[in-house]
Amino acid sequence: MNGETRSRDAWVMSIFGLACGLLAGLMAVVTRRFFATELVADVVAFAGAAAAFFGVGALVRSFANGQRATWRPRATAALLFAVVSLFLSVVVCGWLHTQTLKALADRSQKLVDALYAYRRDQSTFPERLDELVPGYLPKVPPTSMRNDPPYEYRREAADRFELWVDLRATGEGTRLFYRSASDYAPGTEVLRAWGFDD
User: Are 102 and 192 in contact (CB under 8 A)?
Assistant: First the structure.
């Protein structure tokens, strides 16, 4: 095999690795965004990690005498696949998850505001969310999430409540909750005054 052919083959393998990484990563992003499932992202991340291990091994092997032409293109293709697929399946999918939670927290603010308005007028938080209707809200708003999980609410005292949405049925795999006293347990991740379990 002459040098020109080897160079062409190396480019073909690199482009193949890049294209496969893009395809796998985009599948993860699309299923995460439109079907709210992390299964494909997890599989792609696992494949990306496996490709990274293979790529590093192939790179090490390419330094052996007479093995560069054989193993360097394989290493490049595997590492390109790993970098692209891991970036899309981990970083981009993680960002989409955070944006989904932020959007829900923003949509839920009118319900939180109504609870505080009720307390301002009645000196206590309501026992149930439907007590906000019709004086403070025309109706208890939907969460507008996949499978439409409802808001759940518990008055803990006259001046304390917890409001939450169980998002496991939506594919988000978490519970988003608001505590009026902001007394979140240590280690709880807080996003726009809402805590979430991951």
Answer: yes
Q: What is the pLDDT of residue 146?
A: 78
**Tokens 């439409």 identify what position?**
148
pTM of this structure: 0.74
| Contacts of residue 193, Cβ cutoff 8 Å, sequence gap at least 6 | 105, 178, 182
Assess contact for 90 and 38: CB atoms under 8 A: no
* 25, 80 contact by CB (below 8 A): no
Check: CB of residue 84 under 8 Å from CB of residue 92. no
pLDDT in tens, 18-61: 888 888 888 888 887 777 677 788 889 889 999 898 888 888 88
Which string of b and e fits 130-153 if b means at least 16 CB within 10 Å?
A: eebeeebbeebeebebbeebebeb
| Tokens 């090490």, residue located | 60
| DSSP 8-state code for residue 172 | S
Residue the block writes with tokens 């809200």 = 137
Phi and psi at 101, nearest 5°, equal -65, -40
Residues above pLDDT 70, as percent of the chain: 92
pLDDT of residue 6 exceeding 70, the answer is no
CA 178 from centre of chain:
20
Cα distance between residue 79 and residue 10, in whole Å: 13
For the chain, the structural domain boundaries read 3-96, 99-197
Quick check: 127 pLDDT over 90? yes
